[in-house]
Specification:
By secondary structure, the chain is an alpha/beta fold. The protein has 13 helices and 12 strands. It is globular, with a radius of gyration of 21 Å.
């Protein structure tokens, strides 16, 4: 049986393997059960990628505000951000006031804002659209594996790394589905307590396939232990905000510190190649202003804390942080002080080697399409191509199954 087919067919059985554990916390671990990859030549994955999913579809126009466009106030009489509250970035574009913590990044030229991001023929279903983003497929194409999984299949992550990737705050593997050697931390507190997997000898002897699954899961637990902070090892001094996203950001940085510094000896690049965090709650169909402000504050504070921690770890210059999400919101507010599913949204890219500034076309609110949505300005796969090519040195066209021009987001 082909390995990929075997792994796919045995995914459900993984739950049974975990069920024999004496520690219920192991039920929070998720993996696609791929074996450890062979060593890779070169330092490609010493550049870390951190993805932040803005789950639900972030309202772009109240995040990056076209405050000088008179049509903005026409379309958003009740929920629009008052001009005097907008944090101006230039003469026409500004940030939501809750994003104030990001200003130092902007002024230091380490924050890029890519406007008008979507894909041709956008789908406004949560499930289908995020599937398109996670697999980097066309709107009319259905793929089983995530774009990061295909990247790691093209050039495997070195065997010395704890895992290919770490997923925090969601049980969904997203861009790591279908074969990546990834660990999901649905509950970070329980995950930190996971230390062993019971493997009954009788089961192993009777079922070779189950024995293989148990062996793989045992490898995952050992990887988890490498990502777990240990007493006496490096303790981060960086403070983190409270709340679910702040906790997720702290867990990610602690795991990175533990994996990068075995027994207190810094060995950069021995942790994971990618980390994905999820910030939930952006499906703001009603009473948006308060909810949205709170979410953006969590994002800004969490991102700022991660930057401080990465600087503390000496990893800021080799880390790229990027937001993504299934879609944006409609330009016109709805009758319940919210916004409905739309097409495009801006996304943030940050890092020590990021060339900051505004990229992509500014929203033209006088030129909406027949459905009242903004046209696509930047294909999201151009951001992925920037990660795959300039950042990791991979063949982006093979991973993305087509040619997409990278964006000039990185300093040489």
């Amino acid at each position: 049986m082909l390995r990929r087919r075997f792994l796919s067919s045995m995914t459900a059985a993984a739950g049974a393997a975990l069920a024999v554990s004496a520690d219920p916390a192991l039920a929070q671990l998720a993996s696609t059960l791929a074996p450890a990859p062979a060593p890779m030549r070169g330092p490609t994955y010493r550049n870390l990628l951190i993805l932040i999913e803005l789950k639900g579809g972030n309202d772009g126009l109240n995040t990056v505000v076209p405050y000088d466009d008179p049509n903005y106030r026409v379309l958003r009489k009740r929920i629009g951000i008052d001009r005097e509250r907008v944090i101006a970035l230039d003469e026409r574009t500004g940030l939501h006031p809750a994003l104030q913590p990001l200003l130092p990044l902007w002024h230091e030229g380490q924050l890029a804002i890519v406007q008008g991001v979507s894909y041709p023929q956008p789908n406004l279903s949560h499930f289908r659209s995020i599937e398109i983003w996670n697999t980097a497929s066309r709107a009319d194409e259905y793929l089983d594996d995530g774009w990061l999984t295909r990247a790691f299949a093209q050039v495997p992550v070195p065997a010395g790394f704890a895992a290919d990737a770490l997923v925090i705050g969601s049980a969904e593997m997203g861009p790591l589905a279908g074969g990546a050697r990834a660990i999901a931390l649905v509950n970070p507190a329980q995950f930190a307590q996971a230390s062993r997997l019971v493997q009954p000898a009788s089961l192993r002897e009777r079922n070779a396939e189950l024995a293989h699954i148990l062996d793989v899961e045992n490898d995952i637990v050992h990887a988890a232990l490498r990502l777990k902070p240990h007493p006496g090892e490096l303790a981060l001094k960086t403070p983190f905000p409270s709340g679910a996203f702040g906790t997720a950001a702290k867990t990610a940085m602690q795991a990175l510190a533990s994996a990068d510094t075995p027994r207190g000896q810094p060995i950069p690049g021995q942790g994971v190649a990618a980390i994905r965090l999820t910030l939930n709650g952006f499906d703001t169909h009603q009473n948006q202003p308060g909810q949205h402000a709170a979410l953006l504050a969590q994002l800004a504070q969490g991102l700022t804390a991660m930057r401080a921690a990465l600087i503390e770890l000496g990893r800021w210059d080799d880390t790229l942080i990027a937001t993504y999400g299934e879609f944006g919101r409609r330009p016109r507010e709805n009758e319940t002080n919210g916004t409905d599913h739309g097409t495009v949204a801006p996304h943030f890219v940050a890092g020590g080697r990021v060339r900051g500034g505004l990229y992509g076309p500014a929203p033209e609110l006088a030129r909406l399409d027949g459905n009242g949505n903004l046209p696509v300005g930047i294909d999201f796969r151009q951001i992925f191509a920037t990660v795959l090519g300039p950042w990791w040195g991979l063949d982006a066209s093979r991973v993305l199954r087509g040619r997409f021009e990278p964006l000039p987001l990185l300093r040489v």
